Amino acid sequence: MSHTAFISIGDLRRSRPALGDAAPASAGGCSSSGGAGKSGCGSSAGPEDMPAEIWEKVKNHPCYSEEAHHHFARMHVAVAPACNIQCHYCNRKYDCSNESRPGVVSQKLTPEQAVKKVLAVASAIPQMTVLGIAGPGDSLANPQKTFETMRLLQQHAPDIKLCLSTNGLALPDWVDEIVQYNVDHVTITINMVDPAVGEKIYPWIFHDHRRVTGLEAARILHERQMLGLEMLTARGVLVKVNSVLIPGVNDEHLIEVNKAVKARGAFLHNIMPLISEAEHGTFYGLNGQRGPTAQELKAVQDACAGGANLMRHCRQCRADAVGMLGEDRSDEFTLEKIEDLAVVYDLDKRRAYQQQVELQRQAQHQAKVDALAAAFDTRLADDGLKVLVAVASESQGRVNQHFGHATEFQIYEVGAGAASFVGHRRVDLYCQGGYGEDEQLPSIVQALADCHAVLVAKIGACPRDELQRAGIEPVDRYAHEFIEKAALAWFADYRERIASGAVVHQPRGDARLRLGAFTGTAAA
């Protein structure tokens, strides 16, 4: 039976019932701890770590599964412009094409326009499996627009997973609708569980028809966030908690946040660095509040190990992002380009394509298992040595990108028999068509300053020499290998060189995080 549909904006408008007419749908939950010997069902987990019904929800969700983000795409639609709180780190802009950060969009959409865009993207990018509403304000401060979009998508694109992001203030009022519209992935931004910390982050909230400030505002927000989280997990909805790390404000406190959200059943905890450059116009940016360094961010994340499972592959996406994590193809799908487009939504073709992508994902997973098993069999005695390695990768979890083409590097911590993903680093694009390349190189070196090596498919003589002078080893002999296998092979060789006296191991310094904007070339 064919599942091909031809959709127009008029079709979407004519199919609108009243809010609340959709049939209830059930959702599964997830324990915050795994079985014996398991780390729990976190972003790096596989099917053996969680119940089958939970694995079905996360296996192709690029935000909820570290493996999936190498293979599957997502998109956000900007249908929710209003917000009910003010954060010191937020300044929503509605027409900004060269920044990549939450709250930024180029176009606001109606629900009908949003669904037409989703169908156009899903037809052109068949590995797009997830649709999220993340602003540019708060999805639940705009409930009619949010749930109308979800209802239409259930009708016209039933295979796409639905997500929303919220600050949690209005969340307890809308849990029934979230479940009713089969939204089984929700992200709550929770930056504190102590209102005394919260009043340093939130100048005001708008709740119960009034504006509230100070400690009372933070107390109300905290109570509503905890209640909403408990209500969602009780209904089997997978919840990811986002926390913005603000040095000197909530950095140490985030350990308590991690414990609190784990106790209430959160599926993942995503600790993100503050974006505080003054050009973004936020209160923190204009008043000199700095963001964390790479090692400060990693230290807080590492301190939360054993609590709620951590997500480390977040890209702090725009509210209209399209494509794989780390890329943005939204300019290919503007309203002007899709308004008169006769979209062909072929569900059978999408499913067939995604089956092939899933086979690739399984191959990557097996290669990782094999690499770790081989490393375990051949490793030297574990002396506790661990180093960071940067990787240039385009897709599919392989070392398959030229150094000069990278706009970000994936960072792995490598030790005896283990290669663990710890994050990514955005960098200035080195290859600029022959112009300005020498100016870009120092900033790339600074972004990788805590790494001992960078694994690439290929690298030119100039950046090779510059990296070596900075104490970073450029490595291209593992081109197109799976990342874990390549990283462990390099580390084994590095250990042998240390043992033979060919190299002397030296600790590295800290690195600078580049946040909040694409380079001009990358955004063009």
TrEMBL record:
Region of interest called Disordered, as start-end residue ranges on this chain: 18-46
Residue span(s) of domain Radical SAM core: 69-320
Cofactor: [4Fe-4S] cluster
Keyword annotations of the record: 4Fe-4S, Iron, Iron-sulfur, Lyase, Metal-binding, Nitrogen fixation, S-adenosyl-L-methionine
Gly residues biased stretches: 31-40
Domain of life (superkingdom): Bacteria
Pfam families (UniProt xref): Nitro_FeMo-Co, Radical_SAM
Pathways involved: Cofactor biosynthesis; Fe-Mo cofactor biosynthesis
Classification via InterPro entries: Aldolase_TIM (IPR013785), Di-Nase_FeMo-co_biosynth (IPR003731), DiNase_FeMo-co_biosyn_sf (IPR036105), MoaA_NifB_PqqE_Fe-S-bd_CS (IPR000385), Nase_CF_NifB (IPR005980), NifB_C (IPR034165), rSAM (IPR007197), rSAM_sf (IPR058240)
Stated role: Involved in the biosynthesis of the iron-molybdenum cofactor (FeMo-co or M-cluster) found in the dinitrogenase enzyme of the nitrogenase complex in nitrogen-fixing microorganisms. NifB catalyzes the crucial step of radical SAM-dependent carbide insertion that occurs concomitant with the insertion of a 9th sulfur and the rearrangement/coupling of two [4Fe-4S] clusters into a [8Fe-9S-C] cluster, the precursor to the M-cluster.
Stated family: Belongs to the radical SAM superfamily. NifB family.
Protein name (database record): FeMo cofactor biosynthesis protein NifB
Lineage start: Bacteria, Pseudomonadati, Pseudomonadota, Betaproteobacteria, Burkholderiales
Designated gene of the protein: nifB
